[in-house]
Specification:
- By secondary structure, this protein is an alpha+beta fold.
- Among the domains are: 13-98, DnaJ domain (Helix Hairpins, Orthogonal Bundle); 265-341, Urease metallochaperone UreE, N-terminal domain (HSP40/DNAj peptide-binding domain).
- The protein is 27% helix and 26% strand.
- The protein contains 12 helices and 19 strands.
- It has helices spanning 13-16, 26-40, 48-61, 64-73, 75-79, 91-98, 129-134, 280-285, 348-357, 368-373, 384-404, 408-416, and strands at residues 116-117, 121-127, 136-147, 162-163, 172-180, 183-190, 199-200, 215-226, 235-238, 248-249, 253-259, 265-268, 271-279, 288-292, 298-302, 313-317, 323-324, 327-331, 334-341.
- A 4-stranded mixed beta sheet has the order 12-13-19-16. A 3-stranded mixed beta sheet has the order 2-11-9.
- Helix 2 (26-40) packs antiparallel against helix 3 (48-61) and helix 3 crosses helix 6 (91-98).
- The radius of gyration is 37 Å and the shape is flat.
- 20% of the residues are buried.
- Residues 135-219 form the CR-type domain.
- Residues 379-390 have a biased composition (Basic and acidic residues).
- InterPro entries: DnaJ, DnaJ_C, DnaJ_domain, DnaJ_domain_CS, DNJA1/2-like, HSP40/DnaJ_pept-bd, HSP_DnaJ_Cys-rich_dom, HSP_DnaJ_Cys-rich_dom_sf.
Amino acid sequence: MFGRAPKKSDNTKYYEIPGVSKNASPDDLKKAYKKAAIKNHPDKGGDPEKFKELAQAYEVLSDPEKREVYDQYGEDALKEGMGGGGGGHDPFDIFSSFFGGGGFPGGGSSRGRRQRRGEDVVHPLKVSLEDLYLGTSKKLSLSRNVLCSKCNGKGSKSGASMTCASCQGSGMKISMRHLGANMIQQMQHPCNECKGTGETISDKDRCPQCKGEKVVQQKKVLEVHVEKGMQNGQKITFPGEADEAPDTVTGDIVFVLQQKEHPKFKRKGEDLFVEHTLSLTEALCGFQFALTHLDSRQLLIKSNPGEVVKPDSYKAINDEGMPMYQRPFMKGKLYIHFTVEFPESLTLDQVKALETILPARPVSQLTDMELDECEETTLHDVNIEEETRRRQQAQQEAYDEDDEMPGGAQRVQCAQQ
């Protein structure tokens, strides 16, 4: 009697959990599992359910027979007994066996005692406004500490170590310093003998590769993907890629975007701003110019017939601002701030010609007799910011002289009598 073949069901979930394709090799699967497991481990603040699902997916996909059954018939077939059920093992055991008997890289059970977390490594990454508009990828070469492969991060050939006699295994030492009579300052600092580890290794037993340091230097190239619309100060994180250390959860490498100043465009959120100066003729009679955008497109900017552009006015072009992060097909606005450049002076003929074209001047409300009684004045050009700054400086100097003059308080007192 022949059994009925199980019906097909979803067979993509286990590939989506670690983020690999259906034709991923065992090495690709291991790399993806390692990165995701470190990121989602409960001891590192990860989601326990995601960690469990990741272990279940890895258990199935790492077994050729189970993977074949899953690819053909999906998760239901595994649960019904074909090729063995998925997720039957403790996810922490899978994690420990994957990293060679330890919890996180460096040894020690992750559930036996809570491991300290290594520091994150933060790097600034300078990007242009064009990079943030178009998106880009940058390859960066970095040096990091990794656990010595020869001794598995033990530092010794035998895997043994001794308690540091100098600090009694605490990794810290206390020193006293006399500050004066009956005053003593107590300071705590890492032990110099064991470099704060609390253990020492004999010279004969030191690992020949890492010289007892437990870690070695490794160069690694990271490809940083800057997505369209990212902001100045935004962080791009590579989980578990910082310096490794024994009994330590590896920290992250974090790149912080630093936008370089652009000579033409200014960015405010999802909008772009650009300055443009018009001559008085252009402001009154019309203008037309080409603006080179961040993606090298030429935008034709022109006024409407008969339109007058006032000084310090703004015009906006929809959908020509910055792309929105993770919604790059939506864009903000491009604002153009217009400055109008007036001529320095006009000839009498030019004045008469303009008077025939421009609206008439307002009629004076003063009579001839009232005008005769007015005093003539002369106008001077000034830089108001400079005048204000000079006046404030003079006032400050006057105050300083009053403070320094002997008997100043008495002089004030006499003036008040």
